[in-house]
Every structure is written in C-alpha cells, then in structure tokens.
Design brief:
Layout (H helix, E strand, L loop, with lengths): L12 H14 L7 E2 L5 E9 L5 E4 L20 E4 L5 E8 L4 H11 L21
Antiparallel strand pairs: 1-2, 2-5, 3-4
C-alpha cells in the first residue's frame, strides 16, 4: 500500500468504449457494463465489505420494558449492533456519474445500517497476478 498521486484524466469516447469492452471480457457473471449513446455508462460494481467495527441496525423486536406492562416512552429508539462477516460482498448498479458517497449511502440502505455514512470510506482494490 504505497501512496499514489491521483490525476484526473479525461478519456475520449473510443477509450471509454475500449475499457468497457476489456472490463466485460474479464468478468465471470452477467454484471456487464454498457455504454449509452450520450457517452455515459452504467453497470455493476462488486463491493467487498471489510468493516473493523460493528454496525447498527434498527431493532427487529420490541424490547420488553423494565417494568412489566409499562410501555417505552415515546421517542425511544432501539438499535442492534453487530459485526458484518468479513468479506461480505454486495453488487450495486451504478452510473458513470455516481459519487463514492452515493455508493456508501446505497450500501448502508441495503443493509439497513443506521450509522452515520461519514463513518465509512470507500477504497478501490486492484489485484494483479493474484496479489
């Protein structure tokens, strides 16, 4: 994991089309990328979750009150926290203009996580020769 300098390079239509063809030739599923007439593209990304802390979801059961027969006061919210299994994978349909924060929000919604999205980050991982 070496620091790298990010440069934003613009690709022309032919380069985008070539990269999409390369991507589609390398995947083993039906989750292809497709190029639209306006130059944008859509497709699926595979997100592998590697969380190091538990996530919170809304409680699924009503928790009994401490005193039998007395309901919880209005406004009390219950939540459950747990660790997601390492290596949990989710596929998301994205557009070429989808931002990283939108990907994080979509993943949290899919898992009904109620934690603040600012507590999460999205990283790109590349593999070459199984490394």
């Amino acid at each position: 994991d070496e620091p790298s300098e990010w440069e934003k390079t613009e690709l022309d239509q032919a380069q985008v089309e070539q990269r999409i063809k390369e991507y589609n030739s390398q995947i083993n599923s039906n989750l292809f990328m497709s190029l639209n007439k306006d130059g944008s593209y859509t497709g699926f990304i595979k997100v592998q979750l590697k969380l190091v802390r538990p996530v919170s979801v809304p409680a699924t059961k009503r928790v009994p009150s401490l005193q039998a027969g007395r309901p919880h006061p209005q406004g009390v919210k219950r939540r459950t926290s747990f660790y997601l299994p390492k290596g949990t994978v989710k596929h998301l349909h994205i557009l070429s203009h989808t931002r990283a924060s939108e990907v994080i929000d979509a993943l949290l919604r899919k898992f009904t996580v109620i934690d603040n999205p600012r507590k999460f980050a999205l990283f790109e991982r590349s593999e070459k020769d199984e490394q």
